[in-house]
What we know:
It contains 10 helices and 14 strands. The chain is an alpha/beta fold. The protein is elongated and about 75 Å long.
Amino acid sequence: MFDQNERRRGTGVSNRPNVHYNQTMKWRFDDLLTFLDVMETGSVTGTAARLNLSKSVVSKRISDLEGALGIDLFQRSPRKLVASDHARDFVERIRPLVREIIEAADTVGERHSAIRGNLRIAAPMSFGTLYLGRMIADFARQYPDLEVAVELEDRMVDLVRGGYDVGIRIGILKDSSLIARKLCTDARIICCSPAFAAVNGLPTRLEELSSFACIDYSNVNTSQLWQFENPASPNDPISVTMHGRIVANNGEAMRDMAIAGLGLVLLPMFIAADALRAGVLIPALPDVTPVPYKIYAVYPPTRHVSAKVRAFVDHLVRHIGDPPIWQMRDPFHAERP
């Protein structure tokens, strides 16, 4: 709580700036953290489950904060909780301040102890299931005092609003406010099943691509534009417009549908490599080079990068490598039918 009676004894002179706090303003930091979580989950029940608290404790913290501020943060009904305009304004003001306080506390604590606390990670589904899970497991074994929460989503996650410490981004970075560290450059490849190639043949040049059935990725607006490196003009990639009969929002699902013979697919190598090595997918146009993806670790800007984030990102850099581990064996020269 804030206490306005911090004065030097015997002098009557305050050693703090002349700021007058509301006499009745007595709130707790836990109340703010709970409020931020309720704004994210949209419900007392969701926050109670995530913070491992009873619903009554969550409700009391919100009520205490409302009492301290003298405003209603939520409109309540038996079926839902609706944030007021005050709540939406308040959350935007306090979120960066709360993060700074947490980071400052982490930084001070890390000077005197091993890496500990909580590490929240957001990553794409396919990358998380295929590679990141094993790396996180190894990292967690190294730091037994660290609690790790991983959320896998193929949609773009707002790290700041979601309270994440670090995220994985694949492709073009759209949020310039985040600090980014490149992990690797991942090649991409057009591939299909041997059965599809046997029935439909394979394209021999880019101009033929659009006449083939394909599988598109639905999570980006440019999914129908397949882009390729242009040797004559490196900054001006060649684009081919594809019209996929099938679209999916997950790379592993796209890979599996290609294995089933439904069409050509453009995949990052971290998804395609094992299937290419196994021979269930084959390169469809190996003489052209799709524009590669860059994979980044990103985290919100703070004055001091916490030791846990720094250690985790360093761990990823060491384990992934550049070129990355999944490209260490060359699947590009698999047999064509």
